[in-house]
Amino acid sequence: MKKLYTLIIGVVLLTLPSLISIAQTPQLINYQAIARNASGQALTNQNIALRLTIRQSTAAGTIQYQERHTTTTNAQGLCNVQIGGGTPLSGSFAAITWADAQPKFLQTELDPAGGTAYTNMGAQQLVSVPYALYAKEAATATNDNDTNPTNEIQSLSLAGTTLSLSNGGGSVNLPAGTTYTAGAGIGISGNTITNTAPDQTITLTGAGATAISGAYPNFTVTTPTPADNSPINEIQTLSIAGNTVSLSNGGGSVNLPTYTAGTGISLSGNTIINTAPDQTVAITGGGVTSVSGTYPNFTVTTPTPADNSPTNEIQTLSIAGNTVSLSNGGGNVNLPTYTAGTGISLSGNTITNTAPDQTVAIAGG
Question: Does the pTM of the predicted model rise above 0.85?
Answer without folding.
Answer: no
